[in-house]
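COMPLEX REQUEST
Ligand: 5-hydroxymethyl-3,4-dihydroxypiperidine
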Amino acid sequence: MSELQHFPPSFTWGVATSAFQIEGGATADGKGPSIWDTFTHTPGKIIDGGTGDVACDHYHRYAEDVALMASLHVDAYRFSIAWSRVQPQGKGAWNEAGFAFYDRLLGELEARNIEAHVTLYHWDLPQGLQDEGGWLNRDTAKHFAVYAAEVARRFGNRVKTIATHNEPWCSANLGYGNAQFAPGVADLKQSIQVSHHLLLSHGLAMQAMRAVGSSARLGIVLNQWTADPATDSQADRDLAAFEYSRSVEWFMDPIFKGRYPELALKAHGANAPVVHDNDFKDIQQPIDFLGCNYYFRAFCSAETPPRQPQPPLGFTDMGWEIYPQGLTELLLKLNAAYELPPILITENGMANADQLVGGRVPDAKRIEYVEHHLAALKKAMDAGVKVEGYFLWSLLDNFEWNSGYAKRFGIVHVDYETQVRTPKDSALWYRDFIDAQRAR
Ligand code: IFM
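STATUS: Structure written out below.
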């Protein structure tokens, strides 16, 4: 596939990262511990024993990394703020040295004319708040709103967008549902209550940031997928309907419709969350953009063992099905169901078993992946879905959560021993693709 897709001239081309996955500097300059510091230092939790102590050492190498972005000609950089770097306990005192780091990072981006897109919470809850119950404690939502307002007050006029959460589905389902992620709890009822508090915290933070007032557009980033039945059987179709309801609609409906989707709510039964009187009023705040992260679809089979898809483009190194048309289908489905603000594709990309050979990383598979997903995206836009930007995940190879450093998502290779960065073929392809868009 090599036909050039023509996107609108105003379309934003970016790359994305998150704080815990790249920063390192785990205890630098007064940073407090987060639940991911605790989790990664607990034996057996991370496949290769990796931690975020050093990661890509971006805390010290941010200027080099911004120069790298500039060399790839991107318009925009999406990154997250480590809450415990700027407020070590998650409540109470601010850490000026922590804010100073993000001030320096923003300064570099401004000097290179790269837009900043900030996420407030990419899973790294301050451990101090976890010690008081974490996201199971309603008060955490209130502390989050205080933190959000402070970031908006300090940086709101210097950044293009502020997203409250990245992928709250993961915080709830992997952090509290199956214990794969920090804080490592496996309890369905708790995970559903946590999802409610995450949504509540989003709504409270939106209101707190609006009250501050800034030029930043405010929204949320959700990981989303279509759910397809593996066969036409009633059991597979029921499973697919439930999966879409519990995963996609569960986060979209409260924000856009002020309620939980009936199908999932009913199925959750006694595990349904405790919801206070005004909660949906608080959650259903207008958002200026919706961040959509797309990686795969859900292929739903009720059989034992479950049927597997047979994708023509194969699977990624994570074992995820490569299914670009799911992006078109998802966007059209969302567009039909909700009154959407403009969408940003805030993450899309793949893990690949990349090798550095003679100073080059030939990752043709990743180029193919991105080309197909951009074509799928364009198809949705041509059909009327308003999408304003695309962020490749990720700028750098980085800490891939419970997979440690074993999975490489970057368009830039990182040698973790030397911290040498080498743009992969996909990075050079992306640069040329962006240039070609601008040259039209
Ligand atoms: O690395 C993650 C990121 O932190 C959130 N979205 C999915 C990516 C790949 O797993």
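REMARKS: The first strand starts at residue 12 and ends at 16. The chain has a mean pLDDT of 98.
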